[in-house]
Amino acid sequence: MRWYWIDRFVEFQSGQRAKAIKVVSLAEDHIHDQYASFPIMPHPLIIEGMAQTGGLLVGEHSGFKEKVVLAKISKVVFYGDAVPGDQLTYTTTVDDIRESGAMVSGQVHRGDELFAEMNLVFAHLSTGHEQRTLFEPKTFVKMMRMLGAYDVGVGADGGPLVESA
Amino acid sequence: MVSKEEIFAKIQEAMVDALGVDDDEVTEDATLVGDLGAESIDFLDIVFRLEKGFDISIPRGELFPEDILTNADYIEDGKITAAGIEELKKRMPFANLDEFEKNPVVQDFANLLTVADIVRFVEIKLDGAA
Fold first, then answer.
1. Backbone torsions φ then ψ of B40, nearest 5 degrees
2. pLDDT for B42-60, tens place per residue?
3. A5, A19, A81, B47: which has the fewest Cβ within 10 Å?
4. Phi, psi at residue B74, to the nearest 5°?
5. How far apart are CA B31 and CA A112, in angstroms?
């Protein structure tokens, strides 16, 4: 299993907003782990999907030079459960990006129905201390490419989103 | 001119949202860390909310001068030196450092800030912007 909790970006506006979809499948291991014989997608993994959508949006803003980590889930509300066959749409909006981190708000829709709402805080890990590089920027560029961000993305200048150098 | 009551009300709301506490817990003398359970990452959240709520900009280290607390020149045996205290007073005119000064153990510093300090901090910021 790989740690991808979104399948594809359908919208990506650099530094502002992103929308990604996730198709829930009975073939996924996680769906069987919460309750026996009652397959649902665990809510924490739905939060992770939003964190990946928002985290890539925040990271792209700095060309993936900042180390962006999910620091806090300020608020999360779920209105139901996601089951196999559902398509989830994660919509995330940047409320603020600053030197020390970023705040995003997000909604998850199941089909057309509002399914979850959350506010996430991302921290930029301090570069003041000696630390090893966790991931190279190119790792994220590759992930963005695989998720189709560059096919649908709009850059900060209004032109097509281009891969960070 | 924003009144002190309005400032307090907005700060109370920010604390309730950022820390998941009830509004009656957010009294003026409540400490952010000890009474309201704030952790280091919550300060980032709180700063975001104050900036948004009051339309102010709070550069890193302004509310919580972490650079002083990690500066070897200002620390001796786990305590902040007299020079360090002077620097803190300069940087934090909104905080009351009298009690802390008596036994300035660095580790205790995190629990210094109260809701009233944050109110004064915002008042000073708004005065400066006016």
1. -55, -40
2. 988 999 899 989 999 898 8
3. A81
4. -105, 5
5. 44
The candidate with the shortest Cα–Cα distance to A6, out of A39, A50, A43, A44, is: A50
Residues A14 and A61: beta-carbon distance below 8 Å: yes
Does residue B72 sit at the A interface (CB-CB below 8 Å)? no
What digits encode the pLDDT tens for the residues B58-91? 988 888 888 888 888 999 998 999 999 999 999 9
Q: What pLDDT digit, counting tens, does each position of A138-149 carry? A: 999 999 999 999
* CA B18 centroid distance within chain: 14
Q: Give me the count of residues in chain B.
A: 130
Question: Could you say which DSSP state residue B61 is in?
Answer: T
B60 chain-A contacts, CB cut-off 8 A: 99-100
Q: How far A146 CA sits from the closest chain B CA (Å)?
A: 32
Which residues on A lie below 8 Å from B65 (Cβ)? Answer: none
3 state SS of B127: helix
- Counting residues of chain A whose pLDDT is more than 70, the rounded percentage is 94
pTM attached to this predicted model = 0.84
